[in-house]
Target: Peptidoglycan-binding domain 1 protein
Amino acid sequence: MQSRQAFGSRTLRRGMRGKDVAELQTKLQALGYYMGPIDGIFGRLTEMAVRRLQRDNNIRVDGIVGPQTYAILEQLIP
Model:
């Protein structure tokens, strides 16, 4: 079941849902990138926040949370 996915165990992109998406939103919010609700839904606001994080950290800006984006998040919020 998607909502039981551990953070970092799957690639996240717009349209996905789950606890790992909520954790992503929480981390992005703590870093000042995300101001929307922590609802576990990877929507437009979450994608925009991911893109800003990627741009600021000089990695590929695609709005998709894969290995590089997870690595940045782990560096910034251990």
